[in-house]
Specification:
alpha/beta, six-stranded mixed beta sheet, four-stranded mixed beta sheet, 41% helix, globular, binds octanoyl-coenzyme A
Length: 286
């Protein structure tokens, strides 16, 4: 771990070596960070673990600078097919760091566009799977909602308790929840601050499923996604996400055009030939 004296600035992060050390086939890069851990459970999966245990992984600006760097490094790494984001058993993340925020003034947050770079995760091209145990509150819930797939352990608790602090969600919760669980349930969470269990979140369709060994399951899923043709995976993510923003007619047109475009790839030829020849496809991501 770095000492507290190590001031993480955007510039410092840009200058940190991009070359990970190699131990066998597993690449470890954790040592460059203070608030997160990074590892490669296998060469095709990047695992990022939020690591501020004493603060229940409260999301601070230095943590987000590190998280964004780790996410974009993984996104740019050709060997990585999918990313898993997790926290501890007790907390995925208990929200934005209230102690960092409490004395801020309107002029600071407005002038400096506070939180603007906290949604960078949603710009990634590779799929991100959230493996949630314990508290996913406020910004922690919003961070999970920015991911493409959410798996939750039976201990997970989701909520938007900002109302208890005299504010509202600021990281997309009020918008993404409406898409995920509908207006009435989103309104209930935002206006009461009530936490919902993993089981309730599952019933509401907010997550993919509840599972024991959530990190292991997420890595398994990420490994499976990584075994597919990566052009098709990226296209699939792009069209599903477009469904959030386009009308149905525009979305269907975009999906069809993207589908047509995949016929220009070697992976489409290989995938369909392999099916016809009753063998496993060998995708080259080209
Ligand atoms: N910020 C700062 N510190 C925190 C936070 C937080 N959000 N949550 C917990 N901590 C700290 C506590 O202060 C405590 O520190 P210390 O030991 O120094 O006193 C330590 O973590 C352990 O916490 P507790 O003792 O409170 O643990 P409990 O098990 O008793 O309670 C709870 C756990 C219920 C999770 C409780 O800690 C809690 O209510 N936390 C705050 C939850 C919250 O209100 N979250 C919303 C924050 S606002 C927000 O997220 C705005 C989103 C902005 C957008 C973000 C974009 C991604």
């Amino acid at each position: 771990m770095f000492s507290r004296a190590f001031q993480i600035t955007t510039t410092a992060l840009r200058t940190v070596s991009r070359k990970p050390s190699v131990i066998g086939t597993i690449r470890l890069m954790s040592t460059q960070y203070e608030h997160i851990l990074t590892s490669r459970p296998n060469p095709s999966v990047a695992l990022i673990t939020l690591n501020r245990p004493k603060a229940l992984n409260a999301l601070s600006t230095p943590l987000f600078l590190e998280l964004n760097k780790a996410l974009f490094d993984a996104d740019a790494d050709q060997a990585v097919g999918a990313i898993v984001l997790t926290g501890s058993d007790k907390a995925f993340a208990a929200g934005a760091d209230i102690k960092e925020m409490k004395d801020k003034e309107f002029s600071d947050v407005y002038k400096n566009n506070f939180l603007a770079n906290w949604g960078e995760l949603s710009r990634l091209r590779k799929p991100v799977i959230a493996a949630v145990s314990g508290y996913a509150l406020g910004g922690g819930c919003e961070l999970a909602l920015m991911c493409d797939i959410i798996l939750a352990s039976p201990t997970a608790k989701f909520g938007q308790p900002e109302i208890n602090l005299g504010v509202i969600p600021g990281g997309g919760g009020s918008q993404r929840l409406v898409h995920a669980i509908g207006k009435s349930r989103a309104m209930e969470l935002v206006l009461t601050g009530r936490m919902v269990s993993a089981q309730e979140a599952d019933q509401w369709g907010m997550i993919s499923r509840v599972t024991d060994n959530v990190v292991e399951e997420a890595i398994k899923m990420a490994t499976e996604i990584s075994s597919k043709g990566q052009l098709a995976v990226q296209a699939g993510k792009e069209v599903v996400n477009a469904g959030y923003e386009l009308t149905l007619a525009e979305g269907l047109r975009f999906e069809r055009r993207t589908f047509h475009g995949l016929f220009a790839t070697k992976d489409q030829k290989e995938g369909m030939a392999a099916f016809a020849e009753k063998r496993k496809a060998e995708f080259t991501h080209s």
